[in-house]
């Protein structure tokens, strides 16, 4: 006589759903394949051949990140199609700042109950971000953890590995007089969303209301995905004259630029060199935000900054413009540490 005992499914974990998800996302992952990838999804680990990727004496670079509380808007609106692009961008935009080409990414997706359609949309967004940045989605983990997450909630993390030939590391040779080129952002990207959500609460608007600063709903406007700068930035690095790149994430221009400047050097930035995008104007006005707070919380319209040889500034501006970037000459590297601003954004 056998007893009808508990199953894992009775405890809230559906192994069959997890297997189905793997099968669903295999075509998306396959689209991200690149030279060096040695196997598909499903193994206990993912293999990558650096020699097949074209490297002779490589140095590896690793980065990990998440999307922060922007996830809350994606969950509350049900618009999860591009949140995976944000995840990829937060990892690979960091890698390229070291001079590295992103090679592969692994994702971690955790939820209380696996909803196949939602999970498929999320991971297809991750694959789209990988494909756009020449990075293979080589593996990952889907964790169904009942009791850890409220219904409908999930969390995402990304782990990316890139490579460069030895001696090609950035930053390098940053000197006083280098020109600072700013690449426009596509919105708020993936930082400062705890403050964004507080401002939205203050405004009395709902996610489905029309955005005061853009077409479409407020939720749609604030979910605009983080811009991927990888291929454009690598093209500039390979053209020569790029001494440093800074991804403008949490901490804004004020805190991210000094991370790539040598001791004793700082930056002088003309705030009149670009126009503050409408989304930041709205956030600042609605939240009564001071300019200094804006500049150290958000990207303020500049998602990546390059410190370049002054003699190469015009040529690199032209190259980046051809690559589809909106380029602003922000200022210069100067003696004396810290970021000094002139002009006004607000």
What are its keywords?
346 residues; 10 strands; 33% helix; 6-stranded mixed β-sheet; 4-stranded mixed β-sheet; 11 helices; alpha+beta; globular; single chain
Give your account of this protein's structure.
Helix content is 33%, strand content 23%. It contains eleven helices and ten strands. The strands form two sheets. It has a six-stranded mixed β-sheet. A four-stranded mixed β-sheet has the order 1-4-2-3. α1 (15-31) packs parallel to α4 and α3 (83-97) runs parallel beside α4 (116-132). It is globular and about 80 Å long. The model has no long low-confidence stretch (mean pLDDT 95).
Short description:
By secondary structure, this protein is α+β, with helices and mostly antiparallel strands. Helices cover about 35% and strands about 25% of the residues.
């Amino acid at each position: 006589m056998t007893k009808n005992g508990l199953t894992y499914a009775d405890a809230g974990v559906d192994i069959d759903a997890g297997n189905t998800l793997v099968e669903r996302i295999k075509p998306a992952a396959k689209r991200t394949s690149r030279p060096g990838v040695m196997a598909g999804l499903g193994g206990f680990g993912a293999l990558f051949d650096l020699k097949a990727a074209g490297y002779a004496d490589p140095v590896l670079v690793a980065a990990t990140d998440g999307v922060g509380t922007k996830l809350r808007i994606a969950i509350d609106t049900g618009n999860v199609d591009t949140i995976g692009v944000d995840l990829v961008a937060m990892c690979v935009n960091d890698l390229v700042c070291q001079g590295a080409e992103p090679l592969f990414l692994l994702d971690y997706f955790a939820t209380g109950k696996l909803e196949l359609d939602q999970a498929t949309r999320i991971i297809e967004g991750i694959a789209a971000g990988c494909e756009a940045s020449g990075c293979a989605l080589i593996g990952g983990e889907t964790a169904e953890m009942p009791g850890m997450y409220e219904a409908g909630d999930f969390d995402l993390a990304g782990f990316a590995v890139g490579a460069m030939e030895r001696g090609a590391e950035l930053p390098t040779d940053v000197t006083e007089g280098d020109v600072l080129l700013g690449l426009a952002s596509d919105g708020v990207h993936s930082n400062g969303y705890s403050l964004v959500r507080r401002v939205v609460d203050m405004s009395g608007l709902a996610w489905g209301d029309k955005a005061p600063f853009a077409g479409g709903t407020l939720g749609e406007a604030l979910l605009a995905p983080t811009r991927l700068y990888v291929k454009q930035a690598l093209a500039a690095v390979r053209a020569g004259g790029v001494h440093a790149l800074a991804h403008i994430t949490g901490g804004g221009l004020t805190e991210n630029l000094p991370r790539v400047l040598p001791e004793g050097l700082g930056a002088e930035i003309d705030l009149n060199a670009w126009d503050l995008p409408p989304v930041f104007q709205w956030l600042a006005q609605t939240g009564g935000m001071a300019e200094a707070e804006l500049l150290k919380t958000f990207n303020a319209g500049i998602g990546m900054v390059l410190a370049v040889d002054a003699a190469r500034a015009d040529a690199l501006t032209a190259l980046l413009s051809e690559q589809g970037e909106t380029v602003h000459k922000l200022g210069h590297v100067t003696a004396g540490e810290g970021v000094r601003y002139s002009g006004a954004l607000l």
